[in-house]
């Protein structure tokens, strides 16, 4: 009971500290909040997983732990020095580290963690604390820049509080510590950055080069008919007439999401390109990204790409004509689905098969929501609650693959209201004044966010994707600079 109490208190404290990091102005209080959140989340993870075979294996190999900690400390120290000397490297390092997960093996099990991003975050926090700690006077946040951070901080704190009564407290704690707390710190670090034209060009270059490299890796997988990891995808490829690639990503859908977002950003730059050289270079990049996206066979990624491109068309030309084109396309897609197979009927079983079982997950999530409509089953509880309340308890499931359904089942109306409010505030913040004075950077951020939002409706992973937090931080900063005097 004491350990559970300490874990709950620590979890809420970490969420509150990370939330304070995005609400407080630069100074000692914010530096202390970031350092506290950074220190708590690994401690909570180790405490929660103390008897897990992976941690037990590490406990019996202290020398390995010491070596890993020494390497991590050396990397953080080196990055801190670089960030202190050249502040522009911090946002570039965050963008570069977003897609990389490192497989860690211990105790006969493996976990794919965002280790490079965690190291960059740690170095960024130390560098920011060293910069801000001497500041005694703290200016209040700029006018018009507080609503999005407030709703983000509220969402993180609410998720931590609702993990306290979750039917799977351990999963809720892991989601807070692995995702929400460090990604909130990412938001705090990026909101200090001044996003000038030069830095934005460097970010576009990093995204383009990195995505191209991933496509090359995927091309090698397609040519050799072999994947680097994920046994489940490897086995499924053996029984399908098509071959899905995942490049360096664990899941083809996550790989497809990354390529779709990169394509939307490149398309935004293309629409506002000022030189012929930039036009052809960006056109070539988009072609390469499309070639890489096709063999993922990720339907959710194709939908996300279309949504992002539609948003760009609405910003660049006309939202009325874009809306009409989207309506015609939707009607055409429905007709195609109706006519495929010659039956002309849409049945529940057919929809479930076409959606790879997602229909059952969505209906199951809706049933869970109806049973606890106010508070839900608690953060991170979908898998445990679904298996407990469904007849097929052996079905492997972690989320509903539809973000609103997962939020509703786990957090009830309380969490659903905060989730919808966050989306509304985010869209308003990112799009404020954009139609009157459109720019490539702001259009790219809003379109990419819409694309990611659509992808989460078919695959989930809204809060758990660091790209969400990066887009919100950059978009809010760019929207704020528009309000400032020239």
Structure summarized in a few sentences:
The chain is mainly α and 486 residues long.
Portion in beta strands: under 5%
The amount of helix comes to: over 70%
Radius of gyration over alpha carbons? 23 Å
Mean pLDDT: 85
Intertermini distance: 58 Å
Low-confidence stretches: none
Work out the number of β strands.
2
| SSE sequence, one letter per element | HHHHHEEHHHHHHHHHHHHHHH
Largest beta sheet: strand ordering: 1-2
Q: What is the overall shape?
A: globular
- Counted by DSSP, the helix tally is 20
Query: Biggest β-sheet, characterized?
Result: 2 strands, antiparallel
Structural class category: mainly alpha
What does this structure look like?
It is a single chain. With 486 residues, this protein is mainly alpha-helical. Helices cover 72% and strands 2% of the residues. It contains 20 helices and two strands. The longest helix has 29 residues, at 403-431.
What attributes does this structure have?
20 helices, mainly alpha, globular, 72% helix, two-stranded antiparallel sheet, 486 residues
Furnish the topology, listing elements before pairings.
Blueprint: H1 2-23, H2 28-48, H3 53-59, H4 62-85, H5 89-97, E1 102-106, E2 109-113, H6 115-132, H7 147-163, H8 169-190, H9 197-224, H10 231-239, H11 252-271, H12 276-293, H13 299-316, H14 319-339, H15 348-354, H16 358-371, H17 382-389, H18 403-431, H19 440-459, H20 466-483
Antiparallel strand pairs: 1-2
Helix pairs in contact: 1-2, 1-7, 1-8, 2-6, 2-8, 4-6, 5-6, 5-9, 6-8, 7-8, 7-18, 8-20, 9-11, 9-12, 11-12, 11-13, 11-19, 13-14, 13-19, 16-17, 16-18, 18-19, 18-20, 19-20
């Amino acid at each position: 009971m004491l350990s559970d109490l300490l874990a709950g208190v620590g979890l809420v404290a970490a969420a509150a500290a990370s939330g304070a990091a995005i609400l407080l102005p630069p100074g000692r209080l914010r530096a202390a909040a970031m350092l506290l959140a950074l220190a708590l989340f690994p401690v909570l993870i180790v405490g929660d997983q103390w008897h897990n075979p992976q941690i037990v294996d590490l406990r019996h190999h202290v020398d390995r732990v010491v070596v890993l900690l020494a390497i991590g400390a050396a990397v953080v120290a080196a990055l801190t020095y670089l960030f202190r000397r050249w502040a522009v490297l911090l946002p570039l390092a965050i963008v570069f580290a977003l897609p990389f997960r490192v497989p860690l093996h211990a105790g006969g099990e493996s976990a794919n963690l965002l280790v490079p991003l965690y190291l960059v975050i740690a170095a960024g926090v130390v560098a920011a604390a060293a910069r801000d700690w001497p500041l005694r006077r703290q200016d209040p946040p700029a006018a018009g820049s507080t609503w999005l951070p407030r709703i983000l901080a509220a969402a993180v704190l609410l998720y931590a509080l609702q993990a306290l009564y979750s039917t799977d407290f351990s999963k809720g704690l892991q989601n807070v510590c692995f995702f929400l707390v460090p990604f909130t710190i990412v938001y705090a670090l990026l909101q200090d950055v001044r996003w000038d034209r030069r830095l934005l060009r460097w970010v576009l270059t990093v995204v383009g080069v990195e995505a191209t490299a991933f496509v090359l890796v995927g091309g090698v997988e397609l040519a050799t008919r072999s994947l680097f990891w994920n046994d489940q995808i490897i086995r499924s490829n053996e029984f399908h007439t098509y071959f899905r690639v995942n490049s360096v990503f664990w899941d083809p859908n996550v790989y497809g999401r990354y390529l779709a977002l990169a394509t939307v950003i490149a398309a935004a730059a293309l629409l506002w390109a000022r030189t012929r050289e930039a036009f052809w270079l960006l056109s070539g990049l988009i072609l390469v990204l499309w070639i890489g996206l096709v063999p993922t066979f990720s339907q959710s990624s194709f939908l996300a790409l279309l949504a992002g491109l539609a948003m760009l068309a609405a910003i660049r030309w006309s939202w009325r004509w874009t809306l009409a084109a989207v309506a015609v396309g939707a009607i055409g897609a429905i007709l195609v689905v109706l006519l495929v197979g010659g039956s002309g009927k849409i049945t529940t079983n057919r929809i479930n098969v076409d959606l790879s079982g997602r229909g059952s997950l969505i209906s199951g999530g809706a049933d869970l929501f109806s049973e606890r409509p106010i508070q839900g089953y608690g953060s991170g509880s979908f898998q445990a609650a679904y298996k407990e309340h469904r007849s097929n308890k052996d079905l492997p499931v972690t989320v509903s693959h539809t973000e609103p359904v997962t939020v509703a089942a786990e957090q009830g109306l309380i969490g659903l209201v905060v989730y919808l409010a966050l989306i509304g505030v985010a869209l308003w913040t990112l799009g404020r004044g954009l139609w009157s004075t459109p720019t490539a950077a702001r259009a790219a951020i809003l379109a990419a966010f819409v694309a990611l939002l659509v992808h989460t409706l078919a695959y989930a992973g809204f809060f758990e994707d660091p790209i969400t937090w990066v887009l919100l931080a950059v978009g809010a900063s760019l929207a704020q600079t528009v309000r400032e005097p020239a």
